[in-house]
Amino acid sequence: MPEGREPYVPVKLVGGVAVYSEPENYPQEITHLPPWYAAVGVHPKHIQELTEDKFNELRTLLQSPGVSALGEIGLDYSVNSKFLREQENIFVKVLSLAVATKPIVLHLRGTFSDTLGIGVTARYHQLLRKNISPRQLLHVHCFTGDSTLVSDWLTEFPNTYFGYTALAHNFTEEQIIGLRSVPSDRILLETDSPYFAPRENSVNTPMYVGNTAEILARYLRIPVEQLLGLTLQNGMRLYRS
Question: Signal sequence: where (predicted)?
Answer without folding.
Answer: none
